[in-house]
Amino acid sequence: MSDFDYAARALSNAREVVVFTGAGISVESGIATYRDPLTGIWAQHDPRDLETANAFRKNPPFVWGWYLWRRQQVTNAPPNAAHLAVGQLAATGRKLSVITQNVDNLHERAGSVDVLHLHGSLCTPKCFACHRPGTLPEHQIPIPSEGALIEPPRCGRCSGKLRPNVVWYGEDLPSDVWKSAVALVKNCDVLISVGTSGIVTPAADIPRLALSSGATVIHVNTEDVSTAEPNELMLIGKATEVLPKLIALVPRAEQPQ
Ligand code: APR
After folding, report:
1. Sorting pLDDT into bands at 50, 70 and 90, what band is 233?
2. Which of 44, 197, 245 to mutate to test the pocket of ligand 1 (most atoms within 8 A of CB)?
3. How many domains is the chain partitioned into structurally?
4. Domain span at residue 202?
5. d(CA 194, ligand 1 centre) in Å
6. CB 122, CB 104: distance < 8 Å
7. For the sheet containing 190-194, what is the strand order?
8. Read out DSSP for 109-161?
9. How many Cβ atoms are within 10 Å of 254's Cβ, its own excluded?
10. pLDDT tier, 42 (very low <50, low <70, confident <90, very high otherwise)
11. CATH of the domain at 95
12. Whose CA is closest to 153, among 60, 49, 66, 72?
């Protein structure tokens, strides 16, 4: 039996499924990955110039403008067949949780409701000083171009500068989100890991945590990222081709008697 057949059987027998995603699931919506040498965001910028608190302190308009540009990319990007297939998995009557490293909102726009963002979201800024959630001023979008210098708006409570509500290099993941993610991974029967290079921890530890908790892990990636553990399956291909085919084979879950 192929890994694909094993994956379809494991999903059909599962009651609790986690889908863990990285930048690769959004590639076919036109959003650059972080490390793809051809299209990756880092090919154009040095992350130390953009994705750290110090970078924001040094040049708030440049970092804020960069994020507004990225948010605009996301707003203009449609969810793709992979996001939609994940949304459909919930309709099979299984407990489905999505844990994403992505800061876009494509899972939500594809119908997924239980989505944990380990690295935050482009959609909701927060105050750099008091951390209170802020709202994006509509007059700042659409922005003229990538690299436009745009003054960050001010917090309604303390007048501090608003910053993107994403996890920057050197910052910890939100502890409540991480704890929820670990609990879901430890209890799932199957974890599908889609489009992630597994480089950045602690997020990268999630597939290993699922395996050590006895779950079957199904990797979906254009490259072989499997560690060849028992109960680990590797489906090589584009997420928009593999996921719809796989999820179409998953029947409705048997209701408990
Ligand atoms: N379908 C499936 N996988 C794909 C596709 C595709 N169409 N295109 C690319 N990939 C795979 C690549 O092979 C790679 O393994 O997606 C992965 C993208 O890896 P990264 O760019 O490293 O993205 P990610 O794993 O999400 O990065 C994790 O690093 O910089 C931080 O905070 C950032 O959340 C990000 C984290």
Report:
1. very high
2. 197
3. 2
4. 1-30+79-119+173-257
5. 8
6. yes
7. 115-117, 95-100, 16-21, 190-194, 216-221, 232-236
8. HTT--SEEETTEEEEEEEETTT--B----GGG-S-SSTT---PPPB-TTT-PB
9. 10
10. low
11. 3.40.50.1220
12. 60
Do residue 21 and residue 102 come from a single domain?
yes
pLDDT reported for residue 37 = 60
C-alpha 134/C-alpha 101 separation (Å) is 22
Write down the pTM of the prediction.
Answer: 0.94
Q: Closest ligand 1 atom, CA of 196?
A: 25
In angstroms, rounded to a whole number, what is the distance separating the alpha carbons of residues 43 and 236?
24
Pocket test for ligand 1, best of 45, 196, 235 (most atoms within 8 A of CB): 196
Whether residue 148 is found in the same domain as residue 222:
no
Amino acid at 13: N
| Same domain (yes/no): 21, 91 | yes
Check residue 39 and give its pLDDT.
57
Looking at the fold, whether 112 and 156 belong to one and the same domain comes out as no
Residue 207 token pair: 């597939």
Region of residue 170 (phi > 0: left; psi between -120 and 50: alpha; otherwise: beta): left
From the list 119, 131, 139, 219, the catalytic residue is 119
Q: Can 119 be counted among the known catalytic residues?
A: yes
Contacting residues for 244 by C-beta, under 8 A, at least 6 apart: 81, 82, 84, 85
